[in-house]
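This week, look over our next protein:
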Amino acid sequence: MTVRHPRYSKEDFAKRGNDIYETRVRSKIEEGNEGKIVAIDIETGQFEVADDLLAASKLLLRKVPEAQTWFVRIGYPVVDHFGARSLRTQR
């Protein structure tokens, strides 16, 4: 198995991932997919949606083997959390 290494700082990685999600991906996938995971390659903008992190990652890596992957849980402010508080976005 190939080991991939980050090519960006944490800050740049997050900025690129969030920018791609907000400008190119969100409007295409948000409706009907709340709670699912989107995996986004921050270099190509390609993405995949699945029920969990592993499935989304595998789907994206089939298309982009060297993907620099950013994950978003659709409709939520974080992908995962610890504790009893809700993940739901207050709207």
Q: What stands out?
A: The helical segments are 10-29, 53-63.
